Amino acid sequence: MDNRVSHGSLGPASAFTAFQLQTTNPFTMVPSTPSKPRPAPFTPKRPLSSISSASSISSNATTPSDLSARLARTTPSLLSSTHKKYKAPISSESRPRTFTRPTTLPPVPGTPSRPRTPGTPGRKGAESPSLMPATSEMDVSNVDPEAVLVNHESVEPGDVSGEIDEAWLRTATQDHGKEDKVMVSIRIRPTDGHSAWIPTPSTNSLKLDPTYAKTSAAPAQAFNFDAILTGTPNKPIYSTVARSHVHAAMEGFNAVIFAYGQTASGKTFTLSGDDSEPGIIPRAMRDVFAFIRRTPTREYLLRCSYLEIYNEAIHDLLAPPSSAAKNPVQIQGGNGGEIVLTPLREEVVTSLKGVKEVLRRGEGNRRTACTDWNERSSRSHSVFRMVIESRERGSAAGDEEDEDAHTPSNGRHTPGPGRTTPGPRSHTPGGRSQTPGPRLQSRGGRSVQTSVLSLIDLAGSEKATSDKDRTREGKYINTSLLTLGSVIGTLADNAAKHKTDHVPYRNSKLTRMLQPSLSGNARISVICTINPDPSAVSESMSTLLFAKRIKNVQLNAQKKEVVDTDALIERYRKEIEDLKKRLSEREAEAPVRSRRLSAREQVDESKAMKDLNTRIQQLTKLILTSQTVDEPKGDSESRPASPVKIDFDMSPYQLQQELLNARLQVESQATQILSLEAALDARPPLPASAPESEKDRLIAEQGKTIRELEIVVRGYEENLGEPLRAVREDVEKEWKDKVLEEVRRREEKERWAEELVKQLEKEKKMRVTLEEERRALAAFVSKFDSLGLGLTMPPSPTTSKLRPARPTIGGASAAFAERRAAGISSVSSYDHNDTLPSLAESPLRMDMKGNNIKLMLEQMPEEWSDVSFDVHDENVEVPEKDKEKEKEKMFGVVGLGDATGRKGAQSPVRMVLGDKENRAPGKP
Ligand SMILES: Nc1ncnc2c1ncn2[C@@H]1O[C@H](COP(=O)(O)OP(=O)(O)OP(=O)(O)O)[C@@H](O)[C@H]1O
């Protein structure tokens, strides 16, 4: 078995000294109280019923081997080295994890096949509630914090030995707890078979054996981390990856240590360990007490809570199982500030024994079950938290003051019913109350440091198992681990690219709970465990990629310190008085002294006086600002600033400035109140009295909606955005073509309409012209009539309807011109043979007497130049045959003198004449 451990280049432990502690607190220079009689060790009172089966086992089984033997009798499958395939049912799985590690390693993922394990993993307490104490007298709400403080005198020597690997301390050179990066270590579980990974501890690197690489062409990627850990012993692991973080927590920084990895890769073994190899949690607890023992100047209040996140519900592992099941823990806050878990039980611990008891109870309630890969697989994420509050130990005088109202703080007392009366819900150092109950108060000018140490054993990622319930749990586990991965990814990205992208903390309970730590206000150490088996290469690779990403997350842990404002102000005031006294003394002596002093000494003297003045002004300012030092924004429970009357010499200008600042502060607080009220109004309308389950449901629903919306928004661009854009472009193009076609058609029609209008205009003009011609003709005819020329025309008895003239062949003007050329007289001389064809071509024919012809032509308007007249001379005898022939050729024109009543000519002239004839037949 490979027992190599790389300690990397870790620095020496931050050897903690009283001197260092004193320098970290600028306000307190009070020496510790050296020797008060040491009180009797604290033993929490517990009802008989609180003694669980495990503790009874422990008490009866005096040696580890006895215990193993006894457990082996009850749960042989857990202890035997041949138990791999068949093991105890679920009911036995929630036993405390005090089992002995099998001598042969359990099978790796993918290899085993074992009978299904029935049922949901049970909680021991749920099955036998009598084994769990219904209440604990060390519950923080039942004790006076001042009565349960721990200091170097109260720590048992046996509680501190052997946790530190001295050899490591000598070689380590770097303290990862002080870095602003996450410390990331890889622990490779030992294997009996081939290992797919080649660790190089000297360079803290690790790479895949090329034999197991998917593509042999690419060179195997080497991963570098803060430490590469192998082997079974947990002691060097603690020294390397956890110790500096535990110390940071003791010094006032939040610290988180968690194990991440595939199922059965050794997370629980690393965190909890077993009897022979205690893991990080028990060792950290031992180290906490060792730290206290080495720090005589401070006193501590330690509170523990233990919870698990199972199927996205948080269960209090320290609460009685019946009530824990009914009241799942809710997370409140978390928006940039601390989170509040409620109802969560916190138990005060004053000794290692007390912590062990708490751990034992919590672990007994954890859900574990047999899976295809791990016979005791953690089915939940478990979080063990220790809240560490500390302050400098008070002087004797201070203690006496304290004793008036409180139990002495330098000793321990057994709290019991009626013994202590916890005060009202008190101001919480750091701003928020994590759970109801009193807290350590800053007192006598001594500030209180508060930090939280979180030790987290995550459930392992896994593939679907052969069991339905396990598969369901696995889904929840994988989902929350995926969310953790994406949160880490976003944080790393934000840090690398200086972005502030939204981090989806709220997508799972785990990330929501870790939000304050992951946001940066904690020192974080992650141990990524991998299974070296070749069949687990892809899972190990994904663990390594997670490790790589988390390495990039930027941290900036800050100490949280709450000062006692009143005492501080009092101290400043005293100092001011003192300084003023010294100043006035110097001023009084100044005239005498200055005579004796050299020029240089006088300069020094005036400089010293100036310094004194400056210091007085500084202190005056501090008095003002310190009134708001411990009043965190938005904390409804914080104490109002002390109404201290300050009597100091301040110029009116300075006072005005202070006043202005105060006003600005008030204004900003008023704005804050308004926005908070608005946020409150925007909340869904659920009465405060609504049942918790209803609130849960609502919260879950909203969470789901938010998640869905996020997915939709995220997925829109990737999945729908592009196709939809393409469709829109197609449709737009199609419609554009249609519109263009329509425009073209319309233009065509417009052109056609214009053409039509032109034609109509033309026609209209023609009509007008014709109308004018007609009128002229009519005028001519009437003139003609008035001259009495028409009277000579023989009336047509039958014809009253006139037909329009037909055009002559060759044009009337041609014929007319011809005739003109022949002379007017020739018109009257009708030559039958010559004129007959031209007669047929004439549009106007009228029968008139030869005498009138000349007159008519004279009267004819100029425009009629193309009108021809067929003049028929009655004196000329036309043979009857020719007459008929002529009639046929002529268009409806018959000889006017025809007695048979021939139809009238269709010439307008003829028509008018006809009309005249019709109107007044036989009249003059
Ligand atoms: N470094 C190690 N040395 C010896 N045994 C180990 C080591 N790591 C793990 N094991 C053993 O491997 C088995 C599985 O380990 P463990 O239960 O810690 O895995 P896990 O990662 O917590 O699994 P899950 O996520 O399913 O809870 C245990 O029997 C444990 O004793």
Descriptive overview:
By secondary structure, the chain is an alpha/beta fold. It has four domains: 18-116 and 133-167 and 188-211 and 219-393 and 417-561, Kinesin (3-Layer(aba) Sandwich); 566-649; 693-769; 787-919, no CATH class. Helix content is 44%, strand content 11%. The protein is built from 25 helices and 19 strands. The strands form five sheets. Strands 1, 5, 6, 7, 8, 11, 14, 15, 16 and 17 form a ten-stranded mixed β-sheet that branches. α23 links the parallel β18 and β19 (869-872). α7 (235-250) packs across α9, α13 packs parallel to α14 (509-518) and α19 packs across α25. The model is unreliable at 1-104, 106-137, 396-437, 626-648, 791-809, 824-845 and 890-924 (pLDDT under 50). Bound molecules: adenosine-5'-triphosphate. Adenosine-5'-triphosphate (ATP) binds next to α8 and β13. Residues 101-102, 105-106, 189-190, 232, 261, 263-269, 374, 376-378, 459-460, 529 line the site of adenosine-5'-triphosphate.
Topology:
Blueprint: H1 18-24, H2 53-60, H3 64-74, H4 76-79, H5 124-127, H6 166-171, E1 183-188, E2 197-200, E3 205-208, E4 222-224, E5 227-230, H7 235-250, E6 255-261, H8 267-271, H9 280-293, E7 298-310, E8 313-316, H10 321-326, E9 330-333, E10 339-342, E11 347-349, H11 352-365, E12 368-369, E13 377-378, E14 381-392, H12 396-405, E15 448-457, H13 468-497, H14 509-518, E16 523-530, H15 537-550, E17 561-562, H16 565-596, H17 599-626, H18 652-681, H19 692-786, H20 812-822, H21 824-828, H22 832-841, E18 844-847, H23 850-859, E19 869-872, H24 880-889, H25 908-919
Parallel strand pairs: 1-5, 1-16, 6-15, 6-16, 18-19
Antiparallel strand pairs: 2-3, 3-4, 7-8, 7-11, 7-14, 9-10, 12-13, 14-15, 15-17
Helix pairs in contact: 7-9, 13-14, 16-17, 19-25
The structure holds adenosine-5'-triphosphate (ATP).
